[in-house]
C-alpha cells in the first residue's frame, strides 16, 4: 500500500484508511466467518497505511512544502506520541465503560470507533493538501523502492529497516500475548490498556526531556532498546516463576505487569526516535513504500514467534496430559 501512496497520493490513501477501517469495524458484528476474515484483511491493510502513509505525508509537508527545520520533526513526533497516548487512554476508559460496566459487550468499542474514523476521513478530505511528489519511477515503482533499500550507498536504509523490524516484531508479539499473560489477575482490559498508553506518554515525555538536553535521537533509540530488553527479561522471568511456583501466581503476574509497563515506556521513547530517523534516512519519493517494505520481515517475525508460542503451549499441554 505504500507504493500506492507514493504513486497516487498519500492524502488519498489516508482518506481510504479511515473508510476502510470503519468498514473493518462494522464487519465485527457479523457472525459469518468469511465476513470476519474480510474485516481482518481490511484491518491489516489499514494498519500498513497507518504506520507508513500518515508519517510520510507529514514529513513531506514539513520539509518540502513549508521548509521547517528538520529538528522540529523530532519534537513534533514526540508530541504526537504523547497526545496519541492521551487519546488512547480516553479510548481505553470509554471502551471499558461500554464493554464491561455498561455491559454492551466486546463489540461496542468497534462500533464507537466507526464515527471517529468517519470524522477523521472528512478532516483529512477537507483540511489536508496532497503531497506534490515528482517521481521518475512510475513504471517500476515497486522494484525501484526495494532497490533503494539495498543500494550500497544507502546501507543506512537497510540497517534502519532491520532495527525497526526487530523491535516492532517484539512489540506486536507483546500485543497478542499480554492479555493471556495477565489473565490470572482478571484485570479490566480497558483500564490495563489505558495504563499502557499512560506509560507510552511517559516514554515520549522522557524523550522530549532528553532531546531538549541535546541527546541525539540515535542515543535515545539505543536507550529505548535497553529498557525494552530489561522489561522483556523481567517479564520472562516472572512468567517462568509462575510456572515453577503456581501458588504465587498472583504475585509474579503482578511483577510481569510492572515489567509490561516498563516496556511501554520504552515504546514511548522508540516511536519518536525511529520516526525521526526515518525522516532523515529514507528517500522522499519512496518514503511510504519503504516504510511498508520494512513491515514485511516484521510481520514474518511476529507470525513465526506466535506459531512457536502456540506449538510450545500445545506441547506443554500434551506433556502434562501424558
Order of helices and strands: HHHHHHHHHHHH
Question: Regarding CATH, which class?
Answer: Mainly Alpha
Shape category: globular
Model regions low in confidence, pLDDT < 50 over at least 5 residues? 317-322
CATH topology: Growth Hormone, Chain: A
CATH architecture call: Up-down Bundle
User: How many domains is the backbone divided into?
Assistant: 1
The helix fraction, in percent, is over 70%
Determine the CATH superfamily.
Answer: MFS general substrate transporter like domains
Q: β content, as a range?
A: under 5%
Q: Based on helices, strands and strand pairing, what is the structural class?
A: mainly alpha
Report the end-to-end length measured between terminal Cα atoms.
48 Å
Total number of helices: 12
Please tell me about this protein's structure.
The structure is a single chain. By secondary structure, the chain is an all-alpha fold. It has one domain (2-316): MFS general substrate transporter like domains (Growth Hormone, Chain: A, Up-down Bundle). The protein has twelve helices and no strands. The radius of gyration is 21 Å and the shape is globular. Mean pLDDT is 87; it is low at 317-322. Mediates high-affinity intracellular uptake of the rare oligo-element molybdenum. One of its GO terms (molecular function) is molybdate ion transmembrane transporter activity. This is Molybdate-anion transporter. The chain crosses the membrane at residues 12-31, 37-59, 80-98, 110-128, 157-179, 191-212, 224-246, 252-271, 292-309.
